[in-house]
Amino acid sequence: xxxxxxxxxxxxxxxxxxxxxxxxxxxxxxxxxxxxxxxxxxxxxxxxxxxxxxxxxxxxxxxxxxxxxxxxxxxxxxxxxxxxxxxxxxxxxxxxxxxxxxxxxxxxxxxxxxxxxxxxxxxxxxxxxxxxxxxxxxxxxxxxxxxxxxxxxxxxxxxxxxxxxxxxxxxxxxxxxxxxxxxxxxxxxxxxxxxxxxxxxxxxxxxxxxxxxxxxxxxxxxxxxxxxxxxxxxxxxxxxxxxxxxxxxxxxxxxxxxxxxxxxxxxxxxxxxxxxxxxxxxxxxxxxxxxxxxxxxxxxxxxxxxxxxxxxxxxxxxxxxxxxxxxxxxxxxxxxxxxxxxxxxxxxxxxxxxxxxxxxxxxxxxxxxxxxxxxxxxxxxxxxxxxxxxxxxxxxxxxxxxxxxxxx
Amino acid sequence: xxxxxxxxxxxxxxxxxxxxxxxxxxxxxxxxxxxxxxxxxxxxxxxxxxxxxxxxxxxxxxxxxxxxxxxxxxxxxxxxxxxxxxxxxxxxxxxxxxxxxxxxxxxxxxxxxxxxxxx
Amino acid sequence: xxxxxxxxxxxxxxxxxxxxxxxxxxxxxxxxxxxxxxxxxxxxxxxxxxxxxxxxxxxxxxxxxxxxxxxxxxxxxxxxxxxxxxxxxxxxxxxxxxxxxxxxxxxxxxxxxxxxxxxxxxxxxxxxxxxxxxxxxxxxxxxxxxxxxxxxxxxxxxxxxxxxxxxxxxxxxxxxxxxxxxxxxxxxxxxxxxxxxxxxxxxxxxxxxxxxxxxxxxxxxxxxxxxxxxxxxxxxxxxxxxxxxxxxxxxxxxxxxxxxxxxxxxxxxxxxxxxxxxxxxxxxxxxxxxxxxxxxxxxxxxxxxxxxxxx
Lengths: 408, 119, 311
Fold this sequence. Notes:
The structure holds three protein chains of three kinds. By secondary structure, chain A is of the alpha+beta class. Helix content of chain A is 47%, strand content 14%.
């Protein structure tokens, strides 16, 4: 069959957890062209943040994503605390780290189940989600809810860890460690898993740098990109992370990175529980945040989350911009999909662990004179900004965008 | 383990003898931690009507209304369950401890108007 | 005459096959879910699904040929039921035995797969076309090993009739041990025939949204689901008749033994289904031609050699 057919995967499709449209052009079973379309989950959160106070915005930002909600709220709190010049107590920092690593556990277990489901291995889905239920029970006990655990507040955390809770956490950690050892063994020895995951969705080291991949996607292509090690925030300067890299450069590598990160997170939670300092839970925060701009970044389970806040001295922020990790990983998607089979499309999309709710912050330019609206993609935006600055006498074409300095 | 297909068979067959990990809700019982953020509860005894909870609510779900007179104030709290995001910021903002979260999570209803409740 | 009609329509014909098929679907889903450590569906679930689907509207797409679209499920069901009549169930002979009925049963079992392909092709939807092409490619890869694995015991028994084979093996039960490689090949190829994981490629839910059945709904889809259940019963009975043909004297005890044998084969198929991931179509073709077919060939050669020795 040399005739080409175009098949839409989405916006409604059983393999996508949230809407997104992928237009795949097939020749037989091979994908020759793929167009990625996201933007179905846009909710206007950034605009909503501008009309609410900082303490209300904390809960809006937390609900950007269901799975990496703690990371978003930590990044936001960090940004506002830096603007106000407030340092949080050490106990609060440790509790934030414990919640962040527990979130990483539950997110990676969720990913393992989804990957199993996309390749038709429902048994792995059921087992890993059963284990994830224990982690969700712990998160509900600590924060008050299974997802969107509102444990952060501006200036620290809201709830404390009692010794009974710590004993409960340790029990669950032992259980998850046992099960995870089994999953690692399974991933390395099951031939049907290896047949579906290996050699699929290749993203070489140079391509990962060129397309700006972050998180486990980059780490599986041997790019040591882990914000907890590069730019330590909250208590990561005392609880050191061992970044996990792998050089498979394909979906199998991403699975290995995530499963090994679960083991590393368990080690870090145990270290944090052993060394939990005493002290206060919150520091006093003013209601009016001083003027300024701040840029904060954290390591979500999916990669690097960056938040930018500009304040104008009042109770409400002037501009809040959230760039979630999944947004950075979409750029390499068309490149990863081409050349593989149709049967691999769901698992490649699932391998970057996409969070469509995190992604959809579209940029729209409105021409103030004419009032017309345009939606620009990356190349058009870059062209627009180069022309804009050329008119002012500044030549920006010499700057190379693919270079990135990574320091450990 | 050596490589081969169907490696999870031993692990899976052991589960035939174990109890299933499913809770048969509503026949089985639901286990909710006492610290879970369910529906809000309100006691009007200590309430001074400062409206801090109303100011801090991200979703405009809570209202404190004075149903008495200016001299003899009596406050009532109205909550819109459809708007509430169960974040418990109002509980933290209240300086008099009038608000608390319960573990009542069975809040579904057939009509939207019935979601506006008086606490 | 009346007895033949009763046999074809009620027992062990159409009604018994349908009821037994629904029971098999329930047991299959229950074992699958217990292996995954969760509660499964209640016992009336397959019947409830069937009745619910019967009550829904059948929507036929505009580009599809109405009569062929509606005829295909019925043709598949008729073929599966006809195949059931020639398999020895609870006694040494089947209902209407004749020389060569092994080949007829195998060909009758191919017809549902062809109906699935045509159903996908006539649906004129992109997903259905891809699913139909995959179903046909799958047919080419598992058909040869399956036929060879079922022919090997026939070579040893020197007859093309299922009833003759059952009689031969009932007389020499120890020869069944020779056919074990063919048993393994038959089980694996049957997972392909029944389109279950790891070989449910033509109906892959996460890739092409039900593949060949995408445009089917309502009554027609209910009949297709019934075809899949009946095929499960027919294939397990066929494997039980060829590879496990123990038959005691009385018919009642024979029926009980038949139920036990088919349930054992269902258990093996269900465990197989839950422990593997779905493979890609090109991986399936290379697996079937590289591993299954040589194993079946070795079994045939071994049987031919032993035939010369034993007789």
